[in-house]
Write a structure and sequence with these properties.
With 302 residues, the chain is mainly beta. It contains no helices and 28 strands. It is 0% helix and 56% strand.
């Protein structure tokens, strides 16, 4: 039995919210979207703190790498702004991509930052020097999302050409292309143990791929419209999917069964438009939407 209760709704964004990230500092959330700034919120008292810095274009990705006092914001312009928490200012703009940046992740072991863009490439940066190390051409079309395996040996890229491409994280050689989705792949996420990879697509399907062979294990007709994001619970065997169909669904991470639907149709005071990103903060699930609102859900899982 799973019980879900909305415990907060954070308002203040004037336009759709496309990105969120938990800070390295507990109890702090960052959000960004089609507004003029990147916003900091307190999750301890569910309140607005401040606008961190202004932006000249929509924010599509936010990343806070563990072990570094930095925040990276990927913009529709292709720019990536680097904010230093200690200096409390933007210390650099990574101006490599000319087209929108959709995802940013870091490989802690290698001290590298990976940036995915609409230009079909992923640029690799040193987290220590913030210099470009190299760039890899992943697709002829947009690279939409990134997931790094827990053992940091593989990295998965979800692409607009319907494929998930697996690369060796050590030398960035391509290992496999996973075909099966019939539309753009918007979300990829390795399971916490790395035994499988989950992908979600504009085709509304969620696919489960073996983490070693990358064979297709399972296909779930998960939503009515695009699957925008996938997030695993930090300690319990569940994952959540967020969709353009305005719902969040919670699935068993070991049996892939549907356990809960958070939507207005199911009686929840939930989002009225596309849910774009989600994140777990312990047992709290945070969601952001085209409806300009941030919602915090208390999810009690057995």
């Amino acid at each position: 039995m799973i019980s879900v209760e909305k415990i907060a709704e954070l308002t203040g964004h004037g336009n759709p919210i496309f990105a969120l990230a938990l800070s390295q500092k507990p109890g702090i959330l960052f959000t960004g979207g089609n507004d003029k700034g990147l916003v900091e919120w307190s999750l301890k008292n569910n309140a607005f703190i401040k606008v961190m810095f202004p932006v000249a274009a929509s924010v599509y990705a936010i990343h806070c790498p563990i072990g570094y006092p930095l925040l990276f914001a990927g913009l529709r312009s292709g720019q990536v702004l680097v904010f230093d928490f200690i200096q409390q200012r933007i210390i650099k703009s990574l101006n490599h991509h000319q087209k929108p940046v959709f995802d940013i992740k870091s490989a802690g072991n290698k001290k590298e930052l990976l940036i995915a863009s609409e230009d079909g490439t992923v640029s690799i940066w040193s987290l220590d020097t913030l210099e470009l190390v190299h760039s890899i051409k992943v697709s002829t079309d947009t690279v939409r999302c990134i997931s790094i395996s827990p053992n940091q040996k593989h990295v998965a890229f979800g692409c607009r050409d319907n494929q998930v491409r697996i690369y060796d994280l050590e030398d960035y050689t391509v290992l496999k292309a996973l075909s099966g989705h019939t539309m753009a792949v918007f979300a990829v996420q390795y399971s916490p143990l790395g035994d499988y990879l989950v992908s979600g697509s504009r085709d509304a399907q969620v696919k489960i791929w073996d983490g070693i062979t990358y064979e297709l294990i399972n296909n779930i007709p998960a939503h009515l419209f695009a699957v925008n994001h996938i997030a695993f619970h930090p300690t319990l065997p569940y994952f959540a999917t967020a969709s353009m169909d305005k719902s969040i669904k919670i699935w068993g991470a070991d049996d892939f069964k549907l356990y809960k639907v958070i939507s207005r149709e199911k009686g929840f005071d939930s989002h009225r438009l596309s849910i774009n990103k989600i994140a777990w903060d312990g047992d709290h699930l945070i969601s952001v939407s085209d409806d300009k609102n941030i919602m915090v859900w208390n999810v009690q899982l057995d």
